[in-house]
Amino acid sequence: MLGRGLKRKLSDYEESMAGLSSAFDSSRGLSYPLKRQLVLNMCLTKLQTYKMLVEPNLHRSVLIANTVRQIQEEMRQESSQQPVTICPGIAPASPSYPGMEAPGISLQLPSGVGQQESHGCELRSGEDPIENSLLIVSDDDMSSAISSILKDLDFVEDISPPTCLVPTGDDQPKFPENTGLKLEDDRQDLKGAECVFGSFEISNSTSYLKDLAIDDIFEDIDTSMYDSDFCCPPLMPPRSPSLATEEPLKTFPSCNSSSANNIQICRTDLSELDHIMEILVGS
Amino acid sequence: DKTVKLWKVSERDKRPEGYNLKDEDGRLRDPSMITVLRVPVLRPMDLMVEATPRRVFANAHTYHINSISVNSDYETYMSADDLRINLWNFEITNQSFNIVDIKPANMEELTEVITAAEFHPHHCNTFVYSSSKGTIRLCDMRTAALCDRHAKFFEEPEDPSNRSFFSEIISSISDVKFSHSGRYIMTRDYLTVKVWDLNMENRPIETYQVHDYLRSKLCSLYENDCIFDKFECVWNGSDSVIMTGSYNNFFRMFDRNTKRDVTLEASRENSKPRAILKPRKVCVGGKRRKDEISVDSLDFSKKILHTAWHPSENIIAVAATNNLYIFQDKVN
After folding, report:
1. Mutate which of A59, A164, A183 to test chain B, going by most B C-beta atoms within 10 A?
2. Is residue A104, in this structure, part of any structural domain at all?
3. Residue A75 lies in a domain
4. Which residue segment(s) compose the domain that A46 sits in?
5. pLDDT tens for residues B197-252?
6. ipTM of the complex
7. Assuming Cys at both sites, which of B104, B132, B135, B172 could form a disulfide with B109, CB separation 3.0 to 4.6 Å?
8. Which of residues 244-273 of A touch B (CB under 8 A)?
9. How many structural domains compose chain A?
10. In this structure, is residue A19 part of a structural domain?
11. Where are the domains of chain B?
């Protein structure tokens, strides 16, 4: 176990965490900074797990986020009292939360840290096995992790009222004005905006399709270019507006599967939507 | 869990017999064969309990509903989710009034959620709601349509000697209940039950330790998510005894007058009908006496989250995983 420093499977991680929790509770062999680091790791792991749930639990997420903030604040105060540099062994993760996955699970190599004096990075030989399973995460990562989780929770939860989408079989898209507006106001997140935008697009195009025969729409469009099987560079410029639809379409199913209200998604052929988008954008 | 339904629960113990136009199996009789008219009579049958949904109140909640409370006017009720509380009229299913909204403009600023809410037992304009930070707010609906400003704010200052990483998590209130008198409220957080006097906001008047031996196990309980378990608490009819659940199918009762408490167990092995429950004890260290259970052998998957006390009799209902237990005072 010592010095492996490699990405471990989640089950191994969980086993080691259980052992560490008992060590924490018995207050033996763990210094305060280590205990703090352990709690922090557990918090971040939980937040990550909750994010993947179909119905994330807002209450738990808020409690855990507050715990992380509290630890963060404490660490900030300590580091401001002692001017130290953070261990260079930390992998610089991207600001968005998915970037956390790598440092979240991988171990810290003791050799890569050296003798740097930092509270989070103290390595004493007697505690190597425990430290090996702890990770060091930077402040920015934590803040952005919490922010993105809470924003995502807002997005996932607030999109669930069925007034946002048209179930299959409805001819008229029902969008109570205030709900739609409210949703759009809340969306600071670009992904969220695209999703709402995507949902409106799909619903509109579904009713549009029902009202007109498809052939009528396309008869004056030369579709010979799109009949080719491979994506040629000449296709790129015309394709760019449809990429915008593909983005919300990809995120859209994942958002909708997050809702437990069984909102029925209008699954239209991607190619049909491409055509529709071109018409709407072109007109 | 985002829709409220009103059910009618009814018992049926009689059925009509002797219809004219159909026979006992329900098949239609040939009208030309009927020569005599009779009045159907009601005959006793095995008791049947049925629940039928009578109202569905949908589409008003974006987050998980944690509480429903019927108002003392019996015309309105409220439903609370993590960030909002809505007021309904029983007869109107497609509209509700939002009376509390703590959702911040920017979700990143969210640090507190609503955990429970209840109407005052006598004053139909007053209600309380508890939060994940261990605070209780009392609101008066007469002051404003949106009760964002509380009339009273109950919070106990933190005990610095008990501070830990999990202090905030264990301070989250899982249940709040008015006493029958309306003078007190009781709150349940992870380790304690507290009784508050409505006239005193700065601290509870009584605090009872439910399972303080878990204080040294908080990290493990956090790791297996048990620390997020939401226990309920109840008053007895005269507000002299309070009860709440714990782990290992234990539940605890506290007598507010005598200050005595008891731990009882709801399990098949230990309860035969009419048997008197034996008090249990958790051993916290040192020598374990016979019949005591050590903290490490507690079963944390057997938790009693839901309990109820009859409003006037000494009959209690305790839900233990898949079983419902009903106990009463021993009959002399």
Report:
1. A59
2. no
3. yes
4. 14-79
5. 999 999 999 999 999 999 999 999 999 999 999 999 999 999 999 999 999 999 99
6. 0.87
7. B104
8. 260-261
9. 1
10. yes
11. 1-55
